[in-house]
Design a protein that fits this description.
By secondary structure, the protein is mainly alpha-helical. 55% of the residues lie in helices and 6% in strands. The longest helix is centred in the middle third of the chain and has 32 residues. Bound molecules: zinc ion (3 copies). The site of one zinc ion has 8 residues, from loops.
Length: 554
């Protein structure tokens, strides 16, 4: 692991810890011990804990930000006029942050009212408008802080921040639910050994099931393409979670409405039958999931959108050549099996968890968790591969500034640009000794001329260039397909490009959802959580890459 990668991993772990710490800071005005005492005597304490958390300021998690990101997409679609492919320039991420604030305030207020109304035990010693206002504000601040942490992870850590934080949240809830199952039942560990085995097996099964061969247009990439050397299970993509989630919410809707409107006086029996644990509910769940997954996927992979995406990429059709029709046929074929397999597997898994005494485990949560884990690991591997590609072949010395390996007698560190003993004088000020050279244009720089960007030395002209693992960001694309097109344009001119796809696709991706269409309703925008689709080149080739990408595609 390089210096930068070690730092990125440390930053990611530290920010996850910070997000978890927010869940331990109580809401001001709440007596945490009274709250926990109340939670312990409530019937269904486990569910209560799940819903109410610890009455902390981090209780909303990244939820408001995620909802806001989906709303930003819907608002964009409502306002869109003209070309359906036009997405560039719309500030999704900034809009999502603005929309998240009122959502967090409303949810914070609702939670404060809930705490205040908890009943006889004095959970809130001095209730009233003052408590409600401070509680709502601090809970909202906690949610906005979570959004900021997600963006920081995307920028300075590894993986998409939103995915990573939600993954941590799911990992905690799945394991703590399981622990609660043990405690609730009061049974010995030997009774639950099958359930523990199930937890591990389920994770592996979900990883294999959902993360089967990543099927994208990039499938036909030449062998030297980044990612081509990854094992098949790492090139995998989550499929169908968006469809499963939609089916689940649709089925839950009548139950929720019945509990609010009918108040138990009259609960139609068909509402209860909608529980996926019952045969009728299971059939409805599978049917709805298939329909939703199929709709999402065909929408995302509509040939009209493919046609829109590829001219941006500068090619009629990808190399190795399949056209629209083949593309559509393959997409529908792949979708069909995932659309059918995923909900059936979820129903079977639910049945197994009830039989084995671990009803707290959720197949959908485990699927998302597996997807987030593999997606983050995939990004980690991309970082490591980029760092390896830039490392000096046989390093004897270490650079004192960046820790990079040096081949021997260089005047400047090839990784960060720091100057060593016999470096030539500054290009602009011949009397001044050089402290560094620009990693982009190789110009010698004195203390006044040298600037620092992402741990690399640059000149004034290249101060705007961003770096990841020493590679310069040549372009930011809306979708991986567009990025792949840009990479091929560079490759055709002999410039090596690498792709770093840091979107929240793993969260609820249906096959192809993020690969072609950045804007699909009910799905968070790819830039959510600070994610980006980046095309990176070696810093020395940045100038040429920028020239090539600025020229219109032929
Ligand atoms: Zn260095
Ligand atoms: Zn320069
Ligand atoms: Zn100078």
């Amino acid at each position: 692991m390089t210096h930068e990668l070690r730092r990125r991993v440390a930053v990611t772990l530290g920010l996850i810890a910070a997000a978890e710490a927010l869940r331990w800071i109580p809401v001001p005005g709440v007596d945490p011990r009274a709250f926990l005492g109340f939670a312990a005597v409530m019937p269904g304490a486990r569910i209560f804990h799940e819903l109410a958390g610890r009455a902390s300021i981090g209780t909303l998690g990244v939820g408001p930000y995620l909802s806001a990101s989906i709303l930003a997409v819907l608002i964009f679609l409502a306002r869109r006029r003209g070309s359906p492919g036009e997405t560039t320039g719309y500030p999704f991420e900034a809009h999502a942050l603005w929309i998240a604030l009122p959502i967090a305030l409303v949810q914070g207020l609702a939670y404060a009212v809930f705490l205040q109304n908890l009943g006889r035990l004095p959970v809130v010693p001095s209730p009233g408008p003052a408590f409600l206002a401070t509680a709502a504000l601090t809970i909202a601040a906690g949610a906005m802080l979570m959004a900021a942490l997600a963006r920081l992870i995307s920028r300075h850590g590894v993986g998409n921040g939103l995915c990573v934080l939600l993954g941590a949240q799911l990992a905690r809830s799945q394991s703590s639910r399981h622990a609660a199952d043990w405690l609730d039942g009061g049974r010995g560990l030997h009774h639950n050994a099958p359930a523990l085995g199930l937890l591990v097996a389920a994770f592996l099964l979900m990883a294999v099931l959902w993360l089967s061969a990543r099927w994208t247009v990039a499938e036909s990439s030449p062998a030297d393409a980044p990612g081509a050397a990854d094992p098949w299970w790492l090139r995998a993509n989550v499929t169908g979670v968006a469809g499963l989630a939609l089916a689940k919410s649709v089925l839950a809707l009548p139950v929720i409405l019945a509990s609010y409107l009918v108040r138990g006086a009259f609960t139609p029996t068909w509402v209860l039958e909608l529980d996926p644990a019952r045969p009728a509910g299971a059939v409805a769940f599978v049917a709805l999931s298939i329909l939703a997954t199929w709709l999402f996927t065909t929408w995302a992979l509509a040939p009209a959108r493919l046609v829109l995406a590829l001219p941006v990429a500068g090619e009629d059709k990808p190399e190795g050549g399949f056209g629209e029709r083949t593309f559509e046929r393959r997409a529908l074929g792949a979708t069909f099996w995932f659309a059918v397999g995923a909900p059936v597997a979820v129903v079977l898994f639910g049945w197994a968890t009830r039989r084995l005494g671990a009803p707290g485990l959720s197949a959908t949560a485990l699927a998302v968790l597996a997807a987030v884990t593999l997606d983050t690991f995939h990004q980690f591997r991309t970082h490591a591969a980029m760092a390896r590609a830039l490392a000096a072949p046989a390093g004897e010395r270490n650079c004192g500034v960046c820790g990079g390996l040096l081949a021997g007698d260089e005047a400047f560190c090839p990784a960060c640009g720091a100057a060593f003993e016999d470096a030539p004088a500054c290009g602009a000020h011949p009397g001044e000794p050089a402290l560094a050279r620009c990693v982009v244009c190789a110009q010698s720089l004195c203390g006044d001329c040298a600037l620092e960007r992402d741990g690399r030395s640059v000149c004034g002209e290249h101060a705007g260039v961003a770096f990841v693992e020493g590679w310069a960001v040549a372009a930011v694309a809306e979708t991986p397909v567009e990025a792949e097109g840009l990479r091929r344009r560079l490759a055709a001119a002999g410039v090596e490009g690498r792709l770093l796809v840091g979107t929240c696709a793993a969260l609820q991706g249906t096959l192809g959802l993020y690969d072609l269409t950045p804007v699909v309703p009910l799905v968070a925008h790819p830039s959510c959580g600070g994610g980006l689709v980046r095309v990176l080149v070696r810093p020395g080739e940045y100038g040429r890459a920028a020239e090539l990408l600025a020229a219109p595609a032929d």
